Amino acid sequence: MLETKDLTFQYPGGKPFSFPSFSLGKGDQAIVRGKSGSGKTTLLHLTAGILKPSGGRVVISGTSIHDLSAAETDRFRGRHIGLIFQQHHFIHSLNMEENLLLAQSLPGNPTDRRVISGLLTELDISMLARKKPSVLSQGELQRFSVARAMINQPVIILADEPTSSLDDENCSRFTRLLLEISGRHATTLLIATHDNRLSKEFSTVIDL
User: Fold this and answer.
1) What is the pTM of this model?
2) How do the domains of the chain map onto residue ranges?
3) Whole-angstrom distance, CA of residue 204 vs CA of residue 178
């Protein structure tokens, strides 16, 4: 499902990164753990095809993603990878349903309000579909971020420091939500974090 092999990367003028090779199967759940500056976000961006490695490869569902053209990589990412960022990045002039319709259509998929409705019901936020991002709480926006990540039925979800700003109760609640929804859909889950509170929730930990 997901395999990385001998990944290396260097930002211009920066220090080189070398990452451990790992593989995750369908429905596996893991965290990449490391202190600030260890390259966690860089590894996630390499895995998503946002960055190209200096060496090594990333294979997702049999596709070596860095062999694709830029346009092919964007389409592949939109159709097979769900992303959850530290910032939510919703378009504030659109309501939440419209934001999700846009996320469906960007990789060239047909829009389907029934899929959106089902996900929002599963996440218990269907009553907020016509609200705009500015009126929602942090917790509600996080649930919509999960919905957006799941909207195109990805094979893998990549989450970058999703609990860094949460207190203990909300951290636990959001982590359980990610584990439960990825488990129900048999979606591989990989979280980059320096939050040691997550370690006890995952049997697979990749240390940087």
Assistant:
1) 0.92
2) 2-207
3) 15
* 208 residues of the chain, pLDDT tens digit each: 899 999 999 999 888 999 999 999 999 999 999 888 899 999 999 999 999 999 999 999 999 999 999 999 999 999 999 999 878 889 999 999 999 999 999 888 889 999 999 999 999 999 999 999 999 998 899 899 999 999 999 999 999 988 877 788 888 888 888 999 999 999 999 999 988 888 888 889 999 9
- Between CA 132 and CA 36 the distance in angstroms is 33
The angle at the Cα of 187, spanning 182 to 192, to the nearest 5 degrees, equals 75
Range 2-207 classified under CATH 3.30.530.20: no
**How many whole angstroms from its chain centre is CA 130?**
24
DSSP 24-42: E-TT-EEEEE--TTSSHHH
Task: Round to the nearest angstrom and report the end-to-end CA distance of the chain.
Answer: 21
Nearest alpha-carbon partner for 95 in 140, 149, 41, 157:
140
The distance from CA 73 to its chain's CA centroid, rounded to whole angstroms, is 16
Rg (CA), the chain: 17
In whole angstroms, how far apart are CA 147 and each of 45, 88, 143?
20, 12, 6
